[in-house]
């Protein structure tokens, strides 16, 4: 209970405590003292279990904030000798606070001048350094200095999206309604309140007018003819969406991000993307990738990722109820792409790719998986056999990969000792931070797993579960990444 109170949330305790609050005995006294000590209140005052010989109040509702109670009562359920207890709380939806994000300003950005300034950098100074860490740090400083001068960072406020159906006429009605409301509150006269209610009714009627909405949607689709993106944007506007309000954490933000980072680094997608207007081609010397691969070492900062959480279901303050999105440095993806291409070519040439795996493979997709499963079922039907299908989804498949076991499996695939040292450095030297809003956690080592948003992550998962079919004798296995059909 002491821990619950530190969360700074409303507390509601209810149930059959088998303690009769109508009696004045040691049990009811102890429960009463408990409520007093923790500033709680028991709000049920009627008998909750009635028999021929007794009446007792043993089903209780205990609250930390009784002022929020609109009503509470009991009623007979017939099917039980206990009455049903209920409480109706007067809750209000929390007001969304102001939100700010940090973005790069491309107002004065010129792609030609940016490419020219990048080309003027003396990249040959990277050859001075003998280790990858110093090269990466120097590269980041040189590149960031040019980027900041052409596209500086600035903080902007996230504004609410305008309501497309808000016509000038409706805005005038809302202004008149609010003015009438203020007048009624000042005067308290019944006539003013009646006038306000009538204007409120008319305003609601106009806001909910289906004709205006249909006309707006038809006009949007008509004007977007030939542009599928705009059409689908209009259609999505018509569909109900999940609540996108960002939750307010009861704990301090720094405590939350550290707890999330603890969870995410021990349980063992979307990657950052360059703005389209700067994703142009300009030549950079591949000295960092070359040194990283020849020395079989990986710099901590080069592969450090940031996990940005997005809420799923249940209690959003529990780390396991959140889905992390990996934001990886662009430089790390270049190095991973080189390794991925070489390793994939090796696996194809030596026919070492898992034949039952359709995920993350060239010329394979969910379509090829569906064809393989359907063909197998039809074949068994032709042989007068019955097929039973089990669908499996591995929980946190990417996060739970054992680094040491993965290295052993890579060795079995014929990976050379030098390449194996690079993979060991890539796996064991990875670090991550968790960011929620503007709060960033400390950096921690990742003890298990591979990043799902990385270039190598999906390939390494395929190789990690390569021998899964060997564990299931008498059955066929077809997989798409971490989804498996048995």
From TrEMBL:
InterPro entries: DNA/RNA_pol_sf, Endo/exonu/phosph_ase_sf, RT_dom. Pfam families: RVT_1 (PF00078). Signal peptide: none annotated. It comes from the Eukaryota. This is Uncharacterized protein. It comes from Paramuricea clavata.
């Amino acid at each position: 209970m002491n821990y619950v109170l530190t969360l700074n949330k409303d507390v509601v305790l209810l149930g059959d405590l088998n303690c009769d609050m109508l009696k004045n005995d040691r049990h009811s006294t102890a429960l009463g003292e408990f409520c007093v000590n923790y500033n709680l209140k028991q709000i049920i005052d009627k008998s909750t279990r009635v028999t021929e010989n007794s009446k007792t109040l043993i089903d209780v509702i205990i609250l930390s904030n009784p002022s929020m109670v609109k009503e509470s009562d009991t009623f007979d359920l017939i099917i039980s000798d206990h009455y049903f207890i209920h409480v109706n709380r007067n809750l209000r939806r929390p007001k969304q606070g102001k939100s700010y994000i940090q973005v790069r300003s491309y107002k004065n950005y010129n792609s030609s001048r940016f490419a020219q300034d990048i080309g003027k950098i003396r990249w040959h100074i990277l050859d001075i350094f003998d280790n990858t860490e110093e090269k990466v740090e120097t590269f980041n400083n040189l590149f960031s200095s040019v980027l900041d001068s052409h596209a500086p960072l600035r903080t902007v406020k996230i504004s609410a999206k305008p309501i497309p159906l808000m016509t000038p006429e409706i805005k005038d009605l809302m202004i008149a309604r609010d003015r009438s409301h203020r007048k009624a509150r000042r005067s308290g006269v019944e006539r003013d309140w009646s006038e306000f209610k009538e204007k409120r009714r008319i305003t609601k009627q106009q806001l909910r007018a289906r004709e205006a909405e249909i006309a707006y949607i038809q006009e949007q689709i008509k004007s977007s003819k030939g542009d599928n993106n705009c059409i689908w944007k209009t259609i999505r506007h018509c569909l109900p969406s999940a609540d996108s309000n960002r939750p307010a954490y009861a704990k301090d933000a720094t405590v939350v991000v550290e707890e999330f980072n603890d969870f995410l680094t021990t349980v063992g997608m979307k990657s950052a993307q360059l703005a389209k207007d700067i994703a142009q081609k300009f030549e950079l010397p591949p000295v960092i990738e070359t040194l990283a691969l020849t020395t079989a070492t990986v710099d901590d900062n080069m592969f450090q990722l940031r996990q940005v959480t997005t809420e799923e279901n249940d209690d959003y303050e529990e780390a396991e109820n959140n889905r992390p999105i990996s934001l990886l440095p662009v430089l790390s993806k270049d190095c991973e792409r080189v390794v991925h291409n070489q390793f994939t070519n090796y696996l194809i040439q030596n026919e070492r790719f898992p034949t039952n795996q359709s995920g993350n493979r060239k010329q394979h997709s969910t379509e090829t998986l569906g064809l393989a499963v359907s063909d197998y079922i039809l074949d068994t039907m032709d042989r007068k056999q019955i097929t039973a299908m089990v669908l499996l989804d591995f929980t946190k498949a990417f996060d739970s990969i054992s680094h040491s076991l993965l290295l052993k499996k890579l060795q079995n695939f014929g990976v050379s000792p030098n390449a194996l040292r690079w993979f060991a450095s890539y796996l064991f030297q990875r670090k991550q931070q968790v960011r929620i809003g503007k709060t960033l956690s400390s950096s921690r080592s990742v003890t298990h797993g591979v990043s799902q948003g990385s270039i190598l992550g999906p390939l390494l998962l395929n190789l990690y579960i390569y021998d899964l079919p060997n564990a299931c004798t008498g059955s066929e296995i077809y997989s798409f990444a971490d989804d498996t059909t048995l």
